[in-house]
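Students often ask why we bother encoding 3D structure as a string. The short answer is that it lets us treat folding as translation between two languages. Here is a chain of 429 residues written in the first language.
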Amino acid sequence: MPTPTRSTSPLDRADAPGTNGIPRLSGDIRPLIPKLGLRNYWYPAIEDRAVGRRKPLKVSLLGEELCLFRGAGGDVVAIQDVCPHRGARLSEGDCHYRGTVACPYHGWVYDESGKNVMVLSEGPGSGVCGKAGTEARAYPTRTRKGLVCVWSGEGPPAHIEEDVPEEFFDEETLILVGQVDWRCNWEVALENSMDSHVNYVHRNAIVVARSGFIARGAQGEHPIFVGNGFGGDVAESNYLRQNPRQDVYPDGRTWPRTTYRRLWTWLTRPLADRARRHIPPPRSAKWCGGHHLPGMFRAEFGWDLYTRMCVPVEENVTRVWYYHCLRPKTAIGWMVERLAYAALHRWIIEYNFSRQDERVMINQRYDTPEKLSSTDAEVIQWRRLVVTKHFGGRDAPFEYKNPDGLSPDAVPLERVSVRYLQEQRRSAG
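And here it is in the second language, the structure alphabet:
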């Protein structure tokens, strides 16, 4: 497999000390993390419905600018957003002919494979078409559940099922998709979901206010390496659920009262309890709650199976995609969930909750010394995983000893999925 694109760090060198080009994973390895994300993975790029038939669209992904338009078969395709002729933006052109896009400058026309098929400014007799150097780079695309994904790497793409959650291949699952842009690096954005900040940063968020203070615990959770990332240990999570009110400090002070504490309990808790019955449980440990490559956080809470995908756009811009997964039993249920998402859930999660994260992170330093605590165990292991896959490729082995000696392929669902245990209890009862 081709070597992934390197970051600009002076430490980011193939000959750095280590094994198979992978640097030694000790000390502060943040400078080794690629600023523009991991290559050779599938990333969400745009919703299918946003792409028309007459005009192309521009999308930035991993520091590259893509031109998206409809191919001859009607699916969304992607090529580079730079005309090989004089560098004009193809996304500013037109789709005069089915399955093609025309450059706005001289009318060089490209098909979905990036081949130059005609030159409108020179007429049918143009001798340019098909010559070496006239083709635009094409990017493989796949559309699942109305979401267009783009292969960001070189060479043949991996199976999309390896990078896109299993719900996207389940006909019975409803997936509601949203997105916002955060003004911070993708790695900073993703690590935001790995630590113990929730109860403080989100103390006035509706989803936290409804349940009161819930401590993660002074020792954090032990990450379990499974599939292509880390899941949380259900046993430790259950302990925290049984012992949540850890809000009295040694000097007698208690957790401060917040603006909206329990204000929304009467509304949100019944809704969440009802909706939780329709959350699809994971079918494999690979897609359990936790963090997964190339930049995904999954959680089994609230109204749905929640997934947050951090996609690098530029070094200090991250496009955050939200996948809200439910399995309504009727057509009316599908309509109700769509309306509830549009009217309430989207604002609660994607704006009320997530914008609180952004306000903290936009000025966060990622280049100063750190003093990590035991609650940062997953942050440490995640960085090691990212550096390993960046230098060694997506197939590079990652050596991490799970609790109880479990191999990544042998982790049972009941060890990493609270939702799975809930479903088992419901079936048994």
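Translate back mentally: Confidence is low (pLDDT under 50) at residues 1-17. Keep this in mind for the problem set.
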